[in-house]
Amino acid sequence: MMSSMTGFGRGETTHNGTTITVEIRSVNNRYCEVSLKTPANLSMLDQELKDFIQKRVDRGKLSVSVRVESAKPETPAIRFDAEAARLLHAELTRLNTDLGLNEPITLNHLLRFDAIYQSRNENADDEGVKSLLLAATEAAIADLQRMRNVEGQTLQADLAKRLDNIEAVAAEVETLAKARIPEARKKLMDRVSQLVASDTLDPNRLELEIALLADKLDITEELVRLASHISYFRLAMDAPEPAGRKLNFLIQEMNREVNTMGSKAGSAGIAHLVVNLKETLEIIREQIQNIE
After folding, report:
1. Over 50: is that where the pLDDT of 79 sits?
2. What count of Cα atoms within 13 Å lies in the side-chain half-sphere of residue 139?
3. Hey, CA dihedral for 97, 102, 107, 111, is it positive or negative?
4. Contacts of 8 (CB under 8 A, 6+ apart)
5. Residues 96, 168 within the same domain
6. What are the Cα distances from residue 117, in Å, to 9, 73, 83, 120, 264?
7. What are the pLDDT digits (tens) for 157-200?
8. How is residue 104 annotated by DSSP?
9. DSSP H helical segments within the chain, as ranges?
10. Does 2 reside within a domain?
11. Does residue 247 sit in the same domain as residue 134?
């Protein structure tokens, strides 16, 4: 199933008066790039949250917003780091001695240094809050994927129609290519007659002319490979895994075959059809840039 890289998802979970809402906006990107906007008291979970998302989303540039609402006011808990205070006191005492000062080191001096404080939010390390956050994120991802899948199906339907068009035009190219062979053969025979009449017939030159004509007129290989690429393209669209990178490769190969057919075009009719094919392939190429 094809999935788009564009979408929006929202998830919300509530427990014991705390509600966490996660919103994810996604646009196309070569890889999975996650940008987080979380409350300060949850910032220590940022990397874990990124990993959680990247394990579930293959590609896309994701902007993730987290909002926390609590029925009870959050009370900051402050405690002192006794070990840091002791080290600081020792350093100040040493400095006092080195400078030849006799001023005693008091608690008032130590309280001026932020290093002895440890301030945290009561909910920051709460496993319950972490579980709420991940559950809300899981719900937001599921909502995002639903939207991306719907858009992916719309794109797939459109791409299938364009592939049908390519196959129809390729069939016209094949018909015109076969129809021009008798005309090309007649021109070659006329050329041979001229060489015979002028008594300057060179067998080697004649063989070369025939070989060049056969190579120039024959686009069978290109048509066969184009049909094969189209078949693989359809299979990739229906495959369960992300298909964006594979489709991008296949469209490049299809362009290669069409360009070769264009270089071999011996008539205005074929050249016109090749232009049609190129236009359709370019539309497809642009569309698959948004496929996961």
Report:
1. yes
2. 16
3. negative
4. 23, 24, 25, 26, 143, 144, 147
5. no
6. 39, 22, 11, 10, 78
7. 999 999 999 999 999 998 888 777 666 667 666 766 776 666 66
8. P
9. 46-54, 82-98, 107-110, 127-197, 203-217, 220-238, 244-264, 268-288
10. no
11. no
Domain region containing 223: 152-288
Q: Kindly state the tokens that stand for 136.
A: 């809300």
CA-nearest of 229, 227, 221, 228 to 177 is 221
**Residue (of 2, 1, 4, 292) closest to 148 by Cα position:** 4
96-149 pLDDT tens trace: 888 888 888 888 888 888 778 765 554 444 678 899 999 999 999 999 999 999
Angle between helices 220-238 and 127-197 (to 10 degrees): 170
- The token duo for 207 is 């063989």
Round to the nearest angstrom and report the end-to-end CA distance of the chain.
Answer: 10
Residue carrying the six token digits 């996660």: 22
Q: How many domains does the chain have?
A: 3
